[in-house]
Sequence to fold (882 residues):
Amino acid sequence: MSNPLVDMQKPDVIFCIGTNMTECHPVAATGLKKAVARGAKLIVADPRRIDLAEMSHLYLPLRVGSDTALLLGMAHVIAREGLIDDEFIKNRTTGFDDFFEHISQWTPEWAETITGVPAKDIETAAMWYGTANRGAIYYTLGITEHICGVENVQSLCNLALMTGNIGREGTGINPMRGQNNIQGAGDSGALPNNYPGFQAVTEPEYQAKFKAAYGREVDLEKGITKVTALELCGDSIHAMLIDGENTLLSDPDREHCEHALRSLEHLVVIDIFLTETAELADVVLPATAWGETDGVCTNTERRVQRMRAAVPPIGEAKPDWWIICQIAQRLGFKGFDFDAPKPIFNELCRLSPIYAGLDWERINKSEYQWPVPHKEHPGTPRLHEETFTNGRGIFSNVHYRDPAETISEAFPVWLTTGRRLQSYHTRTQTGRAQGIDYLLPEESLEINPVDIEKWDLTDGEWCKMSSARGSINIKLKATNRSPRGTVFASFSFADVPVNLLTGSGYDPVTHTAELKVCPVRLEPL
Amino acid sequence: MTHKMEIDGVEVAFSEGETILEIAQRHQKEIPTLCYDPRLESFGGCRLCIVELEGARNPVASCTTKATAGMVVRTATDTIEAYRKTLLEMVVSENREVDVSPLRGYASGELADLRDKYGVNGTSITGATSGTSKTDDDNPFILRDYELCISCYRCVRVCAEQEGDHAINVMNRGFHTQIMTEFDGLLKDSACTFCGQCIQTCPTGALADKKALRAIDEVADDTLDKTRTICPYCGVGCSVDVLTKNEKIVGIHPAMDGPANQGALCVKGQFAYDFVQHPDRLKTPLIRGEDGELHEASWEEALDRAAEGFHKVHAEHGRHSIYGIASGRAPSEAAYLMQKFIRVGFGTNYIDNCSRA
Fold:
């Protein structure tokens, strides 16, 4: 997030797109609700009539995968109506003239043909956001889990840059991260293109730095992403070390994924349960869980915080860091003689400019949001206040692209996937928490009542749902949350493995899977 | 812009819009409250926070009275303290019990603490108890023990003001006040999301953590410990206090001073903690045997086997044949060492985390 969570109560106009925040980030959503109660206007763009849409002042029910078209249409109106922030554009950005030219063709009427959202509503949304003193954008995986995830994000950046809605209180471009330490995993350098602290592996300066720090030659090119690695399993990838990810259930195209992992010569999984993924491993190593582990995590607003052990480990479980050190030591790797998490985190801080002012003691009270470049620095709750990381904000002349697969005679219904309030990811945790079943005992497919009749189905009964990759059986639940022609299911339940169906394509830059769009066919059982 | 006023004979500064209670608390005045939750709009229902205001005929509720320049306030005169004691006697007399387990909720001991502080023995006023417990609500999380309800409305207000859910409201007035959902039904059939905030703000334990209370019998005699940590679920990073008794996790309290949540939690963070000590947890390493099955093994065997496998693949297929996937759930030390393992061990950038799917 460019802005801190406390800023969520401060905008005049809030634009939420591709975020089911009341279910996926419920505590963050309380801030938005307070802003709305205070009088802020809420615009919600989402294919589904989610709770956030119900509380909005303007709801834009766009067709799945059409976000770029909607955002181009909004940019067109903002430019046409002269709602641009000339001062900001002149002082802080580059490429506006080309962009201005580019968006002249993408009218809201054109956007209506792609998105299904009435042109006048696109205009209203643009007018509200464009005239806001403080306009803030919030998004989640509904923006990124598309083949055009990069264009979607760039489109949001275009809106913020042309209106100067960034670098100030109550504004910003704010992606909500979905896991307790997914930000920290990236910060720590568990990425094929970056060393710790987002230092690019292709930069000679950082190559030299890590060559010296780690005492060995480094690859000068980026590594491959997980998506590519899974495709190369059995071909050029022959061993994997997976820490705490149920890849088999969370990734698209389960059959492909299972085949990939089975074709490895050596698979080591570190986890707290015998997950579907761990069941395929040659060696399974039991890690300590949350509540048993001391360590550091970083939240969606870049706040670096301490996690503390409250109970001793179960059985013989050991902390992840200990397990990795033990394997490394057996292989003769240097620099793995740690006996506690503190020196590991301190080493990360020394090598990472965004953590340079931090250490194990300084994060004790959750006070710091990175970057914290030195010990006297108070942290950075708000990014881009004076300047952008790369100097100027760059306008991107994006084009709309269709999803990897579009509906057809064979697969005439859009399936979109996501999470539910009461279950988390593949339910390895919430599925084992007493009481959660009372609220959410099983998965069901949310479908518009009209579609139930159209496809000759019965509410509450099971149906067969098929995509180009496979079929699953799923119970039907009629609801007006789903628009006609679009159905929704979460990927949480192992007995309804929705990710058997997904996997039509990936964003070519980020390799994020298009989990939000999958044409399917529904048939009675 | 700051102004000046006087509290208990001392001149203090305040800003426009501050209440007498807020200013007094900042100066370490112990003013009793029951209906006050600093996160919510002031309500002025319990009247315990009354103070003497020079020039006012009657005492005023300090939580709802905004300070003005030149005010002269006395927070603990004999008269005020006597009023407070009488109010507490009345409140205590209406409740079935006052001494409740701290496992009921974060604020559940507030009434008992004030009763003790004011030496209220509960016998000077006798009468009927108010509130009817909702015993037919079979939800596994929230006990609705309204015989302990003192009609402070904190639950109703936290649900409306903080959560924006408006799942519960008030029926009747005075002695017959009853908190209920729309149509007096089950929480499950209301707008309730089971975030548990009503439990945690309740000052008497009338709304209580059923799940935590279940652990009472098992670990009755042990002391309750608290450990501050961060919720294990989404990326918001809510601060929580894990409640433990004799090495067992028995509940979660939201951290009221958590920078990301200011006391708020959701159903997962509040109630879905027991995966940690679940019987399904992996307790020993496992190695795949020649029979194709996973078998329990010692750490030595398992780590040797893990290392040998990487060594063999490295030797046969080269350094670009090994890949690491770090967790978005484990601490940063794990992710840091995963990338170091790949970068130091094999000199490649064949490392990623689980953020792409």
Notes: Chain A has four domains: 5-176, 178-223+287-372, 225-275, 413-524. The CA atoms of residues 351 and 422 of chain A lie 38 Å apart.
